[in-house]
């Protein structure tokens, strides 16, 4: 790792595409460029029009290049959508060394054993995330390398995605003139930027409310334990506002951002807002409480679905750190208060942390995934011994976790 090298993350969402450029410094990452553009060509996190998606990606990359005064040629890209599926698995091996000392080779073998499961032909493994290791029935080990034992076990969390969805994301990025270093599940990326180590140790739920979907990640004992996707997001809230107040979608989004509230009890009944009419019809004055009631109903539905998903896990009673809400959909006033009511546990708003530079430009939940992608890139380039430098040259190949499947698409 060399001071001055750059890492780039691109968050390809349903409503916006965001590119983050970060420069490696001795103390961490310095944000040097941010580029955002409206997303066109995606629906619920999945590419439905490649040409439109490519144009949106080009716009976001161009803005980030101008701000950072650098040429972007390689990125870490986020992947999401309700095609994502995940589950836990276990691998078991006999330690191969003559002195029974566990080596990195043994660690790799046990992870491969945990991956030896049957998945449908139209799906591919995106992540294999180790949770804990056991050495000779001694559980709870985070790093087994150097220990002595004859039997090594690994519990891992496996995330899979639809092959075609991953293909289309990679294809769109490459057509924009940029190589894909790695695909990263968006809630995992967001966790790097908004969660603290203490929260992950104590037990926490991350809820990333995007435009088309809401992504869930459960952490406990310092490891990820469960991921899931709910097929509702901020765009559904906006559509409800558009229908309920009889106003165009674009104006509904502006009204939601400026005057929206997710909890009716926080809004005064005396407050009123002006709502533009459709097709030249005159504007109407509406109580802000009516707007809040529309938003609260949909946000509550999202949180209830998330809560139901969490309750299907074994960790519902172990989440001492509560809930962290992030993503663009979390920026509505009262979102945290509503979350505390629905989940029955403490909640807070998750904003990016742990970076320097253009901090003011990225300290909003909407940038959680983008910032998390560059932080993920820094961590895994340390771990894998690979790095894509500012000129886009990649040592060897894309990360070994992907087993070359991204490259094989093209």
Q: How would you characterize this protein structure?
A:
With 410 residues, this protein is α/β, with parallel strands linked by helices. The chain has a domain at 85-161: Dna Ligase, domain 1 (2-Layer Sandwich), CATH 3.30.1490. Helices cover 33% and strands 30% of the residues. The strands form five sheets. A six-stranded mixed β-sheet has the order 11-6-1-2-3-19, sandwiched between helices. A five-stranded mixed β-sheet has the order 14-13-12-17-18, sandwiched between helices. β15 (272-275) and β16 form a beta hairpin. It is globular and about 85 Å long.
Distance N terminus to C terminus?
A: 29 Å
Number of helices: 11
CATH class descriptor name of the domain at 85-161:
Alpha Beta
- Using the coordinates shown, work out and report the CATH topology of the domain at 85-161: Dna Ligase, domain 1
**Secondary-structure-derived class:** alpha/beta
Rg on CA atoms, Å: 22 Å
- SSE pattern, N- to C-terminal: EEEEEHEEHEEEHEHHEEEHHEEHEHEEHH
In terms of DSSP E residues, the strand content is 25-35%
How would you summarize what this structure contains?
The protein has 410 residues and is of the alpha/beta class.
Short descriptors:
410 residues; alpha/beta; Dna Ligase, domain 1; 5-stranded mixed beta sheet; 11 helices
What's the SSE blueprint?
Layout: E1 6-12, E2 16-25, E3 28-38, E4 42-43, E5 46-47, H1 50-68, E6 74-79, E7 85-94, H2 104-115, E8 123-135, E9 138-141, E10 151-162, H3 163-175, E11 179-185, H4 186-194, H5 197-202, E12 204-209, E13 214-220, E14 223-230, H6 234-245, H7 249-259, E15 272-275, E16 284-287, H8 288-311, E17 323-326, H9 335-343, E18 347-349, E19 355-357, H10 359-362, H11 368-384
Helix pairs in contact: 1-3, 4-11, 6-7, 6-8, 8-9
């Amino acid at each position: 790792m060399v001071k001055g090298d750059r890492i780039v993350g691109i968050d390809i969402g349903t409503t916006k595409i965001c590119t983050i450029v970060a420069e490696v410094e001795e103390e961490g990452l310095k944000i040097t460029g941010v580029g955002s553009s409206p997303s066109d060509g995606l629906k619920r996190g999945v590419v439905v029009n490649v040409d439109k998606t490519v144009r949106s990606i080009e716009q976001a990359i161009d803005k980030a290049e101008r701000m950072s005064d650098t040429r972007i040629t390689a990125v870490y890209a986020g992947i999401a959508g309700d095609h994502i599926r995940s589950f836990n698995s276990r691998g078991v091996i006999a330690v191969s060394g003559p002195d029974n000392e566990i080596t990195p080779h043994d660690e790799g073998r046990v992870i491969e054993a945990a991956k030896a499961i049957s998945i449908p032909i139209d799906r591919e493994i995106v992540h294999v995330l180790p949770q804990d290791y056991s050495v000779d029935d001694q559980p709870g080990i985070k790093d087994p390398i150097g220990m002595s034992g004859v039997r090594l076990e690994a519990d891992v969390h496996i995330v899979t995605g639809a092959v075609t969805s991953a293909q289309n994301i990679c294809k769109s990025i490459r057509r924009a003139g940029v190589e894909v270093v790695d695909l990263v599940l968006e809630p995992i990326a967001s966790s790097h930027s908004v969660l603290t180590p203490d929260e992950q140790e104590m037990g926490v739920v991350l809820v990333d409310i995007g435009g088309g979907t809401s992504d869930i990640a459960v952490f406990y004992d310092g490891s990820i334990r469960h991921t899931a996707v709910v097929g509702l997001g901020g765009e559904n809230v906006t559509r409800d506002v558009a229908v309920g107040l009889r106003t165009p979608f674009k104006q509904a989004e502006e009204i939601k951002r400026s005057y929206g509230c997710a909890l009716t009890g926080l809004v005064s009944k005396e407050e009123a807002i002006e709502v533009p009419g459709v097709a030249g019809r005159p504007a109407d004055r509406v109580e802000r409480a009516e707007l809040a009631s529309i938003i609260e109903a949909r946000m509550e539905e999202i949180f209830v679905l998330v809560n139901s998903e969490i309750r299907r896990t074994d960790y519902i009673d172990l989440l001492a750190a509560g809930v962290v809400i992030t993503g663009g959909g979390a920026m509505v006033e009262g979102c945290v208060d509503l979350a505390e009511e629905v989940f029955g546990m403490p909640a807070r708003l998750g904003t990016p942390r742990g970076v320097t530079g253009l901090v003011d430009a990225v300290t909003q939940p909407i940038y959680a995934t983008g910032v998390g992608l560059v932080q993920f890139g820094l961590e895994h380039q340390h771990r894998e011994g690979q790095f894509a430098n500012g000129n886009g040259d990649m040592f060897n190949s894309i990360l070994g976790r992907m087993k070359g499947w991204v490259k094989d698409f093209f």
